[in-house]
Specification:
Strand order of the largest sheet: 4-3-5-6-7-8-9-10
Order of helices and strands: HHEEHEEEEEEEEEHEHEEHEEEH
Bound molecules: 6-O-phosphono-alpha-D-fructofuranose
Number of domains: 2
CATH superfamily of the largest domain: Fructose-1,6-Bisphosphatase, subunit A, domain 1
Strand content: 25-35%
Number of helices: 7
Structural class: alpha+beta
Distance between the termini: 68 Å
C-alpha cells in the first residue's frame, strides 16, 4: 500500500474543513498565493547561475544592504501574487522602506503580511541555500486603509508563518498554530508534497550556530554562554551557514542552538535579525515544533515591536536549551553587575 500523496493545498484544505469548518477560506487562499510565489521564485533561484540575474543592482534596501537582482525579483513575484489574489490588505518587506497597501477583494481579506522575500541572498552566487520568510497577522485597524498599527503586533498574534528554503530541494515549512509541517517540491508535477508532518525538534541538539567573528563585541554573559556551548562536556559541533533559513532548517530537524546576539556597540547594538519578518516567524515555527526563541531576556513572541524594520537579538533552540541559555544570560549578567 503506497503512502497517500498529500499536497500542501490538500493539507491546508483538509485542516480548514476539519478544524475550522466555518472559516471563509481566505487564509487558505492567501497561503495558496504564497505557495504560487514560492514555486515561481524557486524556478528562478534554481536558474540563477544561468541567467543574467546575478550581481548587484545599484540599489540598497532599508538596511543599507546592496539589493541583489534576485531580491528585487522575489519581492516583485510575491507582491504580484498577493496583488492578484487580493486575499490580503497590505504587506511590509525587507526590500521596501514603507508599508505596501494592496486593494483587497472584500472585508474578508483582513490580513497583513510581513515578508523577507529572499533572505541570505548574499549566498546566491556561491550556491548556498537561501529562503523566503513570511508572517501573517489579522488586520486590527478599523476601515479599509491599513496602518502601521496593523503590523506592530506581538509575534503571539501571528495567525500563520513559514519559510521556503531553496536548497538541494525546495521545501515549504509553515504553521497556523497547529504544529509545524514541511512539504517538499516535486518539480516533476510542480506540487509541494507532505514530507515532514508535525516536526518536533530534538530535546538536545548536535549543533550550535553563531557568527564567532563578532565574539569580541558580545557582552560578557553572552561570551560565557557561547563558551559553555563549546565546552567538551556539552558535545556540540559548530555549524554556521550565514543564511538564516538554512541554519534554522538544519537545527529544526537535527536539533541545536542558533544565536545572533547583540553587540555592546556599533551597528549590531540591537542585533542584526529583524523582528517582524525573521525572528517572529521563526519563533512561531520553533515553538510549534516544541522549541523556543528568546531575545536574551524573554520570549520573542511576547516582544512588542516599535518599528516595522526593528532588529532584535535572537537565541533559538529546544525549550531545555533555551532555559539553560536564559540562566547563563541572566546569572552571568547578575554576576558581572555584582562585581562592577
Ligand atoms: P552574518 C543574511 O544576510 C542574514 O540576514 C541572515 O539570513 C543570516 O542569519 C545573517 O544575516 C548572517 O549574518 O553577520 O553572520 O553574515
Amino acid at each position: 500500500m503506497t503512502e497517500p500523496v498529500i499536497t500542501v493545498e490538500r493539507f491546508i484544505h483538509d485542516a480548514q474543513k476539519r478544524l475550522n469548518p466555518d472559516a471563509t477560506g481566505t487564509l487558505s487562499n492567501l497561503l495558496g498565493d504564497i505557495i504560487l510565489a514560492a514555486k515561481i521564485v524557486s524556478l528562478e533561484v534554481n536558474k540563477a547561475g544561468l541567467l543574467d540575474i546575478l550581481g548587484d543592482t545599484e540599489k540598497t534596501n532599508v538596511q543599507g544592504e546592496t539589493v541583489r537582482k534576485l531580491d528585487d525579483y522575489a519581492n516583485d513575484v510575491f507582491i504580484n501574487c498577493l496583488n492578484h489574489g487580493r486575499h490580503v490588505c497590505g504587506l511590509i518587506s525587507e526590500e521596501m522602506e514603507e508599508i505596501h497597501p494592496i486593494s483587497a477583494t472584500s472585508e474578508k481579506a483582513r490580513y497583513v503580511i510581513a515578508l523577507d522575500p529572499l533572505d541570505g541572498s548574499s549566498n546566491i552566487d556561491v550556491n548556498v541555500s537561501i529562503g523566503s520568510i513570511f508572517s501573517i497577522y489579522k488586520k486590527i485597524s478599523d476601515g479599509d486603509e491599513i496602518s502601521v498599527a496593523d503590523f506592530l503586533q506581538s509575534g503571539s498574534e501571528q495567525v500563520a508563518a513559514g519559510y521556503i528554503i531553496y536548497g538541494s530541494s525546495t521545501m515549504f515549512v509553515f504553521t497556523t498554530g497547529r504544529g509545524t509541517h514541511g512539504f517538499t517540491l516535486d518539480p516533476g508535477v510542480g506540487e509541494f508534497i507532505l514530507s515532514h508532518p508535525n516536526i518536533h525538534m530534538p530535546l538536545m541538539g548536535k549543533y550550535y550556530s553563531v557568527n564567532e567573528s563578532n565574539a569580541l563585541t558580545w557582552a560578557p554573559e553572552v561570551r560565557s554562554y557561547i563558551d559553555h556551548l563549546k565546552s567538551p562536556d556539552q558535545g556540540y559541533s559548530t555549524r554556521y551557514i550565514g543564511s538564516l533559513v538554512a541554519d534554522f532548517h538544519r537545527n529544526l530537524l537535527k536539533g541545536g542552538v542558533f544565536c545572533y546576539p547583540a553587540s555592546t556597540s556599533g551597528k549590531l547594538k540591537s542585533g542584526k535579525l529583524r523582528l517582524m519578518y525573521e525572528a517572529n516567524p521563526m519563533a512561531f515555527l520553533i515553538e510549534q515544533a516544541g522549541g523556543q526563541a528568546i531575545d536574551g531576556t524573554g520570549p520573542i513572541l511576547e516582544r512588542m515591536p516599535e518599528s516595522i524594520h526593528e532588529r532584535v537579538p535572537l537565541f533559538m533552540g529546544s525549550k531545555e536549551e533555551m532555559k539553560t541559555c536564559l540562566s547563563w544570560l541572566t546569572a552571568e549578567c547578575n554576576r558581572s553587575h555584582a562585581s562592577a
